[in-house]
Structures are given as structure tokens and as C-alpha cells.
Design a protein that fits this description.
By secondary structure, this protein is mostly helical. About 75% of the residues lie in helices and about 5% in strands. Its main location: membrane.
Length: about 300
């Protein structure tokens, strides 16, 4: 059932993508702001209480609903699983930015490409060159494919619908409370997501290596990832860059300042450009196909056993 749920959800999300901002992010943002308003008094323990209050009610409700469906109407479990995956994962949550940026670079429309990557990242991009735009687009796509596709799939297979919901909520509240502006209040959200993401992130990096240049991907992972400001993201970016033979990271000129220390070089091979972006698309899709094929093999093996 897991395999069918995943395939149906992926097809449905491509045909009719969910309005994530309206139905997911906006309600969760209001919920997070409410909890922060009433809980954030600068103490770590209240950040922990807020995180538990944010995570537990929707997870418990989902588990109760799943239990009720399994007990009284098992035939509805498939659409239930599809609905949860439809809400928690999907390429269309980020692919439009990548596709439009890629097309703009292909057409030589650098200003439009800058505007798109700036909107995607939430930072000014008016001084970026075409190669810098391509590098950033590949970096964002590799991270987003993990966070919005591979990690939710990992937890769905491992823990069922509640697993996918667990990851999606942890990712969202890390984004809401993980910044330095909330201080120690967000420490639990940051640490919890780090532990929740530890295994699926490394699985995604390993899959990137398997469907790309394995030796270069593993070498870059081992030698470069720890130098990235966020070593966890560095694992994913180094593996992905090595797998497609492109150099990511490197200094950027943003808002008149060049950031050297925050962006060490990742990967090996050619400078990033529009062709490299096409290679990144291929890497992500090959990774997804491999994951689905592995699930299919496990399903066949369990059915025959």
C-alpha cells in the first residue's frame, strides 16, 4: 500500500499541486505566532513546551484518525495515505522557481533569473552573475528536493503517515523558530530537527552518489561537507555537486559585499551554468526513480515471501 500511495501522491501533485501557502503554511504560521507570543519569555524550557504543543496535537489527531479508519473502514487507508503525502511532500513546492530560473538563464534573461532566485531565497540577488545564479539554484534545488520529497518519503516508509507529518512539522517549526532572532526559545526546534533529519539526509546524499558519479560524490562528502556553515546541508550539497561534476559554494557578491568565509567550494568539475542545472534535474529524478524501484523490489519480495 505504501508504494501505491507514493506513486498516486506524486502523480496527483504533478497534475494538481496543492496551494501550500494557503492551506499549509499560512495556518501553521498563525499557530506558530500564537505559541511564540504566549510562550516566548526568553527561557529554553518554554521553547520546549511550545515545540511540543506545536507538534503533538496534529500528530495525535492524525494517529487517532488513522486508527479509526483502519478499524472501521480499512478501504479508506489508501486515500488517507495519499492525502497525507499530498500535504507533506511534492516537487511542485519548489520546482517552479527552479524551472523558471533555468528557462530565464537559457533565454539570456539575467535580470529575471536574479529576481526569481532572490524571491526563492528571500535575499537580494541584483549583483549576481549568471553562474552565481545557477550555483544558488542548484543548491536550493538539492536541499529542497531532500526536504520536500526524499525525507518525507523516508519517514512515510519508516513510520507511516505520522512519520511524514512529523518531518513536515519539524521542518516548518525549525524554519519559524530556528533563527538567531528568537534566541534560546528556538533551541529545541533546531536540535529536534537536527536529530530527526540526521538519517534521511545521509540516505538522500547516498542516493545522489549512487545515481551520479559515485567516487567524486563520496570524496566531496568526506572532504568538503564539514567546511560548510551548516555541516548537515554541506553533506547533501557536497554529495550532489560531486555526483553531477559541478562546483557549488564559492564567494558571492550580495548587497555590495562579497561573502568569502561562509561559502567554501563544494563539489568538483565545471563551473555551474544552465547545463549544470539540467544535470541537477536529472540527478533528482534518477534518485526518485531509484527509491521507487527499491520500494517496488521490497514489496515484491515481501509479497513472494
Amino acid at each position: 500500500m505504501s508504494l501505491f500511495s507514493i506513486v498516486i501522491a506524486l502523480i496527483l501533485e504533478q497534475v494538481r499541486p496543492l496551494a501550500q501557502q494557503r492551506f499549509v503554511r499560512a495556518p501553521l504560521t498563525r499557530y506558530a505566532q500564537f505559541l511564540e507570543t504566549y510562550c516566548n519569555d526568553g527561557r529554553r524550557i518554554h521553547g520546549t513546551i511550545a515545540w511540543l504543543a506545536a507538534m503533538l496535537p496534529p500528530l495525535l489527531l492524525l494517529l487517532l484518525l488513522q486508527f479509526a479508519i483502519a478499524r472501521w473502514q480499512p478501504l479508506l487507508l489508501l486515500p488517507f495515505n495519499v492525502a497525507v503525502l499530498y500535504v507533506t511532500m511534492g516537487f511542485r513546492q519548489f520546482s517552479h522557481y527552479f524551472t523558471d530560473t533555468h528557462l530565464a538563464l537559457r533565454m539570456g534573461e539575467l535580470e529575471r533569473a536574479r529576481a526569481l532566485i532572490g524571491e526563492w531565497r528571500g535575499r537580494s540577488a541584483e549583483r549576481l552573475s549568471s553562474r552565481e545564479v545557477a550555483r544558488l539554484a542548484i543548491e536550493e534545488a538539492l536541499l529542497a528536493s531532500h526536504q520536500h520529497v526524499f525525507a518525507p518519503l523516508f519517514y512515510f516508509v519508516a513510520l507511516g503517515p505520522a512519520g511524514a507529518m512529523l518531518y513536515r512539522l519539524a521542518l516548518f517549526f525549525r524554519g519559524q523558530w530556528g533563527g538567531s532572532e528568537v534566541g534560546v526559545f528556538g533551541e529545541t526546534a533546531r536540535k529536534a530537527f537536527h536529530y530527526i533529519d540526521w538519517l534521511p539526509l545521509r540516505c538522500t546524499a547516498a542516493v545522489f552518489a549512487m545515481v551520479g558519479n559515485f567516487e567524486d560524490a563520496v570524496y566531496c562528502w568526506r572532504t568538503q561537507a564539514a567546511n560548510w556553515p551548516d555541516p548537515a546541508s554541506g553533506i547533501l550539497l557536497a554529495s550532489g555537486a560531486g555526483a553531477i561534476g559541478v562546483r557549488l559554494g564559492q564567494p558571492l557578491q550580495e548587497a555590495g559585499e562579497v561573502a568569502f568565509s561562509e561559502r567554501p567550494e563544494l563539489g568538483s568539475g565545471e563551473e555551474a551554468d544552465a547545463d549544470s542545472m539540467q544535470s541537477a534535474i536529472g540527478l533528482v529524478w534518477r534518485s526518485l526513480v531509484l527509491c521507487v524501484l527499491l520500494l517496488a523490489l521490497f514489496w515484491v519480495a515481501s509479497w513472494m515471501g
